[in-house]
Specification:
386 residues; Rossmann fold; 8-stranded mixed beta sheet; 2 domains; 6-stranded parallel beta sheet; 14 strands; alpha/beta
């Protein structure tokens, strides 16, 4: 089959990873796949790169943020419309509903082409607040839900989104739960002492690591502020380039001197940088957007052997807690005490790191998920989501 994957994100960001691996799995099993995403640093031109039976097209970024939710770059939308109209695709797999995903589908999908939809975030009224305007909320919700009704089959990332799909009238037979995967071959532990040394951090320093997550960062900083006086040698490692709001919040909490910031890093450097963290924490508030999502970074934290600390929000903390593969607490108020407990118990950290790595390799590695993904794309009968 010829399959077109449409992703709204900038290359390397968010759902891009999920769409790329779905495309890779299909290509590695004999299908011809094309993935359309958005270039990070090309404003007017496209860029392509290839793997066997897979073509990745990074469209121009110009206009990407013109509409709420992004994905509104007109040059890229036109190119995707042309690609869909002329590419003789059998299947079009739309990842979310943003303009550069939905509009080419609505304008160019042929009667013999099968539309699949992936639902992996709760946007309308959750991630997208639309400044509290109820008319904009209604418009956004209509956009988010309409493409699901158009699709022959829907993949969802969580039970919360499976419930929502059924609630808007999608038959359960058209809904399949496909978990988020992890590339555990690339994302693997490196020597922790060497990783710390490369960042100028003493080997005996307890390091709490994080990647950017807008839902978690304010809670993590507040928890670290409460925890920091108890373990004066601990440091908070931010991998990537932090938003200015994060730096300002850290300054207000008098934590700037306790931060280690790597700046933007390559995918190749990420395993080594994550390996410098003794603990990776993702404290999330219990909201519908957090119950519905699976932050891709959790899988990377686990794969790189850190002790992972989570709040009990959504499907994945419950799965990890049942397997003894993460330290899971019931509320945000529990995070400072949990950080202290982990900081003082190296044996527990080592156990959680090894158990978490083993769990994610046998449960969420892309090779483990590949048969379910292929069955869904090819239309083979699959169990509907719970």
């Amino acid at each position: 089959m010829r399959i077109l994957f449409l992703n709204a994100n900038l290359a390397g960001c968010g759902t891009y990873h999920r769409a790329l691996w779905f495309a890779r799995i299909c290509a590695r099993h004999g299908h011809h796949a094309t993935l359309c995403t958005v270039a990070r640093d090309r404003w007017w031109t496209r860029h392509e790169w290839h793997e066997p039976r897979l073509r990745v097209s990074e469209g121009p970024r110009w206009g990407y943020t013109w509409l709420p939710g992004h994905g509104s770059n007109w040059l890229d939308i036109f190119w995707r419309w042309h690609e869909l109209r002329t590419g003789s695709y059998d299947v079009v797999y739309a990842f979310e509903y943003h303009p550069n995903v939905a509009w080419p589908v609505y304008a160019a999908l042929g009667p013999r082409q099968i539309l699949l939809s992936d639902w992996c975030d709760w946007y309308a009224g959750a991630a997208n607040v639309m400044r509290g305007n109820r008319w904009l909320h209604a418009w956004d919700r209509r956009r988010e839900e309409h493409i699901r009704h158009c699709a022959a089959r829907i993949s969802v990332i969580s039970s919360a989104l499976a419930d929502r799909a059924r609630a808007i009238g999608i038959p359960p037979s058209r809904i399949t739960l496909l978990r988020e995967g992890v590339d555990t071959t690339t994302m693997r532990p490196c020597d922790r002492a060497s990783a710390k040394a490369s960042l100028g951090i003493p080997a005996d320093t307890v390091v709490i690591g994080t990647l950017n997550d807008g839902q978690a960062l304010p809670h993590l900083l507040s928890a670290f502020a409460a925890f920091a006086p108890r373990v004066p040698h601990a440091r908070l490692l931010f991998i990537g380039q932090p938003p200015t709001s994060f730096l300002a919040h850290a300054a207000r909490l008098s934590l700037s001197h306790r931060l280690v910031i790597t700046g933007r890093c390559s995918d190749a450097a990420l395993p080594r940088l994550l390996s410098a963290a003794d603990i990776c924490a993702l404290p999330l508030e219990d909201t519908c957007v957090n119950r519905a999502r699976f932050p891709h970074k959790i899988g990377d934290y686990l794969a790189c052997g850190a002790a992972v600390l989570l709040t009990r929000v959504g499907d994945y903390p419950a799965m990890l807690d049942a397997a003894g593969a993460a330290y899971v607490v019931n509320s945000l108020a529990d995070i400072p005490d949990a950080l202290e407990h982990l900081a003082r118990d190296a044996e527990l950290r080592a156990h959680l790191g090894a158990t978490g790595r083993a769990w994610v390799a046998r449960t969420l590695d892309w090779s483990v998920l590949a048969p379910q993904i292929l069955n869904f794309v090819e239309g083979a009968p699959t169990p509907s989501s719970p």
